[in-house]
Amino acid sequence: DAGVTQSPTHLIKTRGQQVTLRCSPISGHKSVSWYQQVLGQGPQFIFQYYEKEERGRGNFPDRFSARQFPNYSSELNVNALLLGDSALYLCASSSQSGPRTEAFFGQGTRLTVV
Amino acid sequence: AQTVTQSQPEMSVQEAETVTLSCTYDTSENNYYLFWYKQPPSRQMILVIRQEAYKQQNATENRFSVNFQKAAKSFSLKISDSQLGDTAMYFCAFEGPGTDKLIFGTGTRLQVFP
Residue A66, exposed/middle/buried by CB under 10 A (0-12, 13-18, 19+)? Predict the structure, then answer.
């Protein structure tokens, strides 16, 4: 079975540009979460979607937005990129909402803003 | 607000030996979940072990076990019979009740030497 897949794997953008990152959850998983991992730190929670509804939002500016599609795949959008947005963006999926179910992570998208 | 602290940025251990990684956390919640995740150079976060706060018995998964001290808010990971493949970043994480938000520590880089 395919795991959580993220695309692209690497991306280089210029300050001020916009970027869209994509995530396909494990088949049957309805919950998708996004995390930002800056080099040398632990991941920071950005968003969680369950059944196409936003269930949680971390402490990130409005430049960050996300959505979940009917097939449960998800996109993370970041507008007006800053150098500080350079990070590994991780997507995690789980079958249900809540900590009782295991979250499975993708390999991430490495975003570099120059 | 919940916080997770990992005070050991780097650890090393010889193959076949035992190593313990430390983690402390702060919360006012009574029911919550604690996790240890492994992140190898491939970048994919892999769940190592999970502990439910209302369970007094320490969780064990093969060579991995935890020492959960709820009153002290301590959650250490013991790796027995260390293997070269255990070399990775290890993150301690907390998830509160009714949320899908994992709060991660800053990680401990573990190097296993032959």
Answer: buried
Number of A–B residue contacts, CB under 8 Å:
65
Q: Enumerate the residues of chain B whose CB falls inside 8 A of the CB of residue A107.
A: 42-44
Q: Give the minimum alpha-carbon distance from B32 to chain A in angstroms, rounded to a whole number.
A: 8
For residue A7, CA distances in Å to A26, A27, A61, B81 come to 14, 17, 23, 37
From residue A11, give the alpha-carbon distance in Å to each of A14, A23, B44, B101: 10, 15, 17, 26
Place of tokens 């808010």: B73
Give the Cα separation of B26 and B29 in Å (integer): 9
Residue A84 burial by CB count (10 A; 0-12/13-18/19+): exposed, middle or buried? exposed
Contact A99, B99 (CB under 8 A): yes
Mean pLDDT of B88-96: 95
CA B102, CA B93: separation in Å to the nearest integer?
Answer: 6
Joined together, the tokens standing for residue A64 give 């960050």
B105 to chain A, any CB pair closer than 8 A? The answer is yes
Question: What pLDDT, in 10s, does the model give residues B12-44?
Answer: 999 999 999 999 999 998 889 999 999 998 888
